[in-house]
Amino acid sequence: MYVEDACANGAVLLADAKVTRVLQQNRIASGVEFIHRGARHQAFAKTIVLAAGGIGTPLILRQSGFRDVGSDFFFDPLILAIGEVEDLKGGKEFPMAAGCTVHEDGYMITDLVLPEWLYWVFTAQVLRFDRLPAHSRSLPIMIKARDELGGHVTQRGGVRKRLTGTEGKRLMSGYEKARKILRNAGARHIYRTWYLAVHPGGTVKISHAVDANLKTGIDNLFVCDCSVIPETWGLPPSLTLIALGKRLGKHLSGR
User: Fold this and answer.
1) HSE on the CB side for 153, CA within 13 Å?
2) Burial 119-134 (b: 16+ CB within 10 A, else e)
3) 6, 164, 173, 229: most buried by Cβ count inside 10 Å?
4) CA-to-CA distance for 28 and 216, rounded, in angstroms?
């Protein structure tokens, strides 16, 4: 919706273009270099806002001369508890319709509907091949933990981070809670998936790599995505990122 509004007011959206670095002179950003359809191009503007995410943004900044980005991040580890209910014919419901956060134990749980192909991947990954035909009868519950800051993003965009014992305990505590919920719902054949991770962020932190207005150490260059969140998270960041974007827009339009 916001993109459509922007385009209606004169913005140009160029899809499938990969930004590689920020163009600058005398510590003033003037544009970006990008690859589109195999060719290298440049685009120029008075203000540059990077929003390539917790992995993409630090990679672009590194290629642009920034050194101290891409480390001590969070990635919201999670597992799924999946049970089977005989009289259920589902699999197409709206996901994450309800849930709760258990603050004292550092995790959240919510319902989660998986596309059939993704259900097969997660189920086969833990060798539960006997449950592959049960997608429409499955009840998945997601357990997402708040992890500690750590690890680093490699030069090629790989993620290197290990879960601590504390994070593992948070996930297992949530799994036991989810098992009880599934049992009370009449589910059988309950199992859990392998560890997953979503929402990487904290790689270009506020007060470290950007200031309170999301400005970098280079004039005219800002960052506005999950990478600027400075501390552990453990929740879906969408609403926070929309708020940050609207706040940055007001700041830039009022300069």
Assistant:
1) 26
2) bbebbeeeebeebeeb
3) 229
4) 10
Cα–Cα distance for residue pair 98/80, rounded to 1 Å? 15
d(CA 227, CA 201): 4
Contacts of 7 (CB under 8 A, 6+ apart): 13
Residue 55 — pLDDT band, cuts 50, 70, 90? very high
Burial 28-42 (b: 16+ CB within 10 A, else e): ebbbbbbeeeeeeee
Give CA–CA dist 100/254, Å, rounded.
38
Task: Name the residue among 167, 149, 146, 150 with its Cα closest to residue 103.
Answer: 146
| 51 CB-near residues (< 8 Å, 6+ apart) | 57, 223, 224, 225, 245
Reading the block at residue 226, the tokens are 């999950």
Cα(232)–Cα(74) distance, integer angstroms: 6
CB contact at 8 A, 83 and 139: yes
Backbone dihedral region of 143: left (phi > 0), alpha (psi from -120 to 50 degrees) or beta?
beta
User: Using an 8 Å Cβ cutoff, are 149 and 70 in contact?
Assistant: no
Report DSSP state, residue 215.
B
Q: What's the longest Cα–Cα distance across the chain?
A: 67
28 and 220 Cβ atoms separated by less than 8 Å: yes
Query: How many C-beta neighbours within 10 Å does residue 207 have?
Result: 9
pLDDT tens-digit series, residues 204-242:
999 999 999 999 999 999 999 999 999 998 888 999 999
